[in-house]
Amino acid sequence: MIPLSWLLLLSAVLFCIGVIGVLVRRNAIVIFMSIELMLNAANLAFVAFARHLNSLDGQVFVFFVMTVAAAEVAVGLAIIVNLFRLRETVFVDEINLLKG
Amino acid sequence: MITVLFVAFAAILVVSSLLVILHRSPVTSALFLVLAFCSLAAIYLLLHAEFIGLVQVVVYAGAIMVLFLFVIMYLNLGQDVESGATVVLRRGLGWLLGAALVAEGALLLAGRLAPGPAAPPALAAAAGAGNTQQIGLLLYSRYLFPFEITSIILLVAMIGVIVIARGLREAAPAEPAAASAPAGAAAPDDAPGEDA
Amino acid sequence: MNGAPLLWLVPALPLAAVLLNLLLGDRLGRRGVGWLACGAVGLSFLWSALSALRLAALPGAERAIVESAYAWMRVGDLSVDVSFLLDPLSAVMILVVTGVGFLIHVYSTGYMAHEPDVRRFFLYLNLFMFAMLTLVLADNFLLMFVGWEGVGLCSYLLIGFWYARPAAAAAGKKAFIVNRIGDFGFLLGMFLLFAWGGTLQFGRLFEIAPHVFEPGGAVITLATLLLFLGATGKSAQLPLHVWLPDAMEGPTPVSALIHAATMVTAGVYMVARTHVLFQLAPVSLEVVAWVGAATALFAATIGLAQNDIKRVLAYSTVSQLGYMFMACGVGAFTAGIFHLMTHAFFKALLFLGAGSVIHAMSDEQDLRRMGGLAARLPWTHGTMLMATLAIAGIPPFAGFFSKDEILASAFASGHAVIWIMGLAGAVLTAFYMFRLYLLTFRGRSRLTPEAEQHLHESPPAMIVPLFVLAVLSVVGGLAGPPLVEGGHPFARWLAPVFASGVHEAGHGGGHAAAPAIPVATEWMLIGLSVLVAAAGIAFAFRAYLWNPETATRLRERLGGVHRALLNKYWVDELYEWTVVRPVYHTARAFWRFWDTKVVDGIVNGVGVTMEGVSAVLRLFQTGFVGTYALLFTLGVIALFLHFLRP
User: Fold this and answer.
1) Where are the domains of chain B?
2) Does a structural domain hold residue A98?
3) Within an 8 Å CB–CB cutoff, is residue C166 touching chain A?
4) Does some domain include residue A99?
5) Which CATH class is domain B1-78?
6) CB C477 within 8 Å of CB C400
7) Of the residues B9, C210, C303, C597, which has the maximum number of CB atoms within 10 A of its CB?
8) Chain B residue numbers touching C645 (CB-CB < 8 A)
9) Cα–Cα distance between C342 and C412 in angstroms, integer?
10) How many domains in chain A?
11) Residue pLDDT, tens place only, C594-620
């Protein structure tokens, strides 16, 4: 039996790696991939708890999370493609139309 | 035994995700992410979440990452140029904050959780049905409404993607739709973009 | 509540007319507006008469009705209601105000027939009626002050009615500002009375006054002097008389109503109403008497030399007001109010008649270009002759009775000098009023050819009020004949109001603490008044009709004196140099420094500070998603820190 705390620690580490990815990288697609990492970290936590509390509700949640993540990736990439067409770049620090 | 496997797969997971965010080339990052997802799927299997693990491979690694790679290649992205003062400054700040987050997470977990109660393994097997069947039973009874809503989400996403990816100029409807309809939780097929 | 319910209708009817005029005035048209205005005042007059009759039905000692409309202020010790007081004094006032007011409203429909903005005129006129009626019906100082200010405002609006004329606009401003100086005194007096007496309501204050204020003490003297300052402002006495002659820039009906019959009498009314307080401060009463007498004489001298028909009448008004204050000052409050009433009749008539002349002469106002109008304007001539006889004090016209009573009271109270001043004023009054009459109506015509062409008698709307007022000027005095046992009817009517007074000097009023003068002296005084009046008239005839060169010779011989009189003793110039300019320059200096640098500095400074702060805050809005994500995460970390806390 894998201890719950290990799983949660792994989930936390994975999440933080995702956060770092978002903060550090310039490429919008890589940032997006880091976001996927974060989602997966959450999924892991869900499954871990499902295992340890012996209820399948956690897995059902993961099911929904994955579906939504898929939809989100599709839309997000469409936006990035559009942005690329407009600005010829995917680097987020070259796009600042909303500058105040 | 299980613990050893877990540690191994966990290590692969962490290392490959680190490489995702560290590598210069987006294609390499994507491929490492695939690796990360697969090891995560293995961990799911170890946790007796077979259905989830398989779906992870099929959807995440099989569809979503394929989409990523498709877009990367469509946009013809080369290596990222990560130089310049502001970039370095932001990167340093990012690492700092990330480290702080990790530390906080560790601290939060440290004092709060015991290994947790061991779940009686009999309960899972006594139901007699496999993981998939059990999830199915749950999905179509208690979580029916969210299930139906999810299908609507996918429909909306499809429509949205087509609209967004068509671009700003109405005069160029012949542009190939860059995004294909993502495979749902069902079949792993990805239809190539059709002319709109 | 018995007696006269719905007293508030009296001021409310003109107010309703104001509102209707505001809302519907455009749709009513010129005639409709005239009907509305006159109708409202007419109804108000009827209601006043009804209320007065109801009041008369009550036994003498109980003739005081207080009707409270609603509770206005209840703050700490201050408790003020909108409540109205109907007693013999206010009954006289509302009858005079609404009666004469009604006649003048009717006259205005004729006089202002060619005026395009007649709707605004009647709006202001009705508003004035409302304010004036509030003033005289008020049961407490604060409500009276509301009316006080209201009439001041309407005076400003009406003097400056033709606001496009610089002279009119300036005159309106002058009237308002000079009034304000008086109002300041009124306010301070009111504050003082409240601080010591704890109430502003007339009844209560007058009851407790002898106990709260030390008779003859500093507080009550100061308070009453301050109140009198307000009266001098409103009633154009020395030294605040300067606005009244300039106020003649307004339309003539305005001069008749406001600056002859009603508003300027507000000061006299106020002194009469608060006579209890004044009688507790003999010093103040002396001041009142002397100021009144001085003003009477002063203004009469100036009236001798003026060439504008309305200016002569204006100074005449100032002078007659002086007589009223003189009466109050020697304790003959009844006489003062009596003169107020008769003066309203003949002065309004004089002004309206002058208006008729001006109207006939196509807006010519200079006496030197009139003459011989008697045959051409028969009605105007006849009525104005009645008025002139009245003001000159010839029996049996109204002015004789009231003026004689004042002079007799002055004599009886022992103020010999004041009596002589009054007598001198009477001579001068007779003289300059007949000068006006002769120069306008008799003698050979000095008209310009164009005026000659357009000369015409006024329409009925203007003539009928003249006629009514002429009748009143003739018979109005018979309410107060002298030498009647136990006081004449008018005095008996007013007796309950002034009975609480310490002394009512003279022969006609209440019970007198001073011994009444013997009958023989009385007849002698009457004879003397008539004699001086006749002398004045005779001299006027000599100078202006029989021997016209007399006037020119006099003018040459007394050149310096004449110049001083013509220039009103240069009082306006004096004020200009000693008061107006210093104030103006101080204000300018303040503006230059305080307003532009400090106040504007602060206001602009706030703006600049905001700009600076926002410039700093704007640095957060880089537009880069990355920056936002960083700040995000920072926030999350901070949040988690909270959970880490033990």
Assistant:
1) 1-78, 130-171
2) no
3) no
4) no
5) mainly alpha
6) yes
7) C303
8) none
9) 22
10) 1
11) 888 888 889 999 999 999 999 998 888
